[in-house]
């Protein structure tokens, strides 16, 4: 049994409480024994005195006097009757009186203190004791006696009392310890054993704990654990099914991409056909196949889930944004969009250049496609700056804004797409890449006046 275990600590506390109980029993018991001892000596001394006074003799035989004092266990007896203080029995004192104790009105704590004073002093002393005579045999009676017999009697009585109370306390402690072991420690160990067993195979429903504790607090803990295990098992099974589905989708996307790539090659040739119907249909067919190929490639990229950790380096941001803008301007349909770059030429940040390029490119491309879908002229602005704690990059447009349903699941894959045929994977991947930098990507606003995203990169990266 380890000391830092629940059983070990309970055993220590039980021992401490048993010792305290022993002291609370022992000290008053010894004080009571001393008081009874002194009362007995006072009573014997009073009987001896009254026997002598009943003879009406002015003198007493020394041998008889010594015998009476020896039977009473005292040296002297002083009796006060009718306001007269009379030395009834006396014998020579071997030493001076060391103290006087009046037991008539002594408090409980005073009796304990006086008892301990005699108990801890191994030397013999002569003390005077003042008390009340029994049966109205006078007003006050005083005796002198040795402390050694009192001390010996207190020790013997204390040992007997200590042994008896120790046996009772020991039996009580054992029963209490066994009861706690059964009612508390054993259920807790069972709870821990269930947790360990469940962790070995969390997908196994048979390992979910069945709550049966009788103690309310433990029953609540078992109910909570059972609920958590049930939910976790269901989540793990769903995750496994999704993983299997993801593998299947990746395989299908891979094969479909190859098929669509071949179809795209043939569609490209159709553009050179002299048939006017084919000429009109070919661009639409090429665009549809292109979107399908892009969907397959994006799904494959997301399904790999192999994004490496960012390789941090310092570089100027303006040239990187210029590359993104130049790439977007070269695409068909970009003539309807004006690009504005508001970045200081010397602004230097620390990030993974390739990953940050992908993030900004995703945001700018989404904005361009949203503007192109309206068929109207629009503007995309990319700005950046820094504070004491972070760098920020802002991408905003004058487009129509995002639908409410899209904003609810903006950074979730396959649910946050805002355009027809979109998957939402671009924003999901971008948010994941920024989280890898210790930053965050957030939508600041999206309404009929446009959309604004703000990208935060911490200057002190904690990874």
From TrEMBL:
Question: Its catalytic activity?
Answer: ATP + protein L-histidine = ADP + protein N-phospho-L-histidine
Q: Which residues form a coiled coil?
A: 218-245
User: What is the enzyme's main class?
Assistant: transferase
Q: Which residues form the signal peptide?
A: none
Q: Where are the transmembrane segments?
A: 12-33, 157-180
Keywords linked to the UniProt accession: ATP-binding, Coiled coil, Kinase, Membrane, Nucleotide-binding, Phosphoprotein, Transferase, Transmembrane, Transmembrane helix, Two-component regulatory system
Q: Which residues form the Histidine kinase domain?
A: 251-461
EC number(s)? 2.7.13.3
- Quote any Pfam family the record assigns: HisKA
Q: Is Transmembrane helix set as a keyword in this record? A: yes
What does the record give under GO molecular function? kinase activity
PANTHER family named in the record: PEROXIDE STRESS-ACTIVATED HISTIDINE KINASE MAK3 (PTHR43065:SF10), SENSOR HISTIDINE KINASE (PTHR43065)
Q: What is this protein called?
A: histidine kinase
Q: Can you name the source organism?
A: Thioclava litoralis
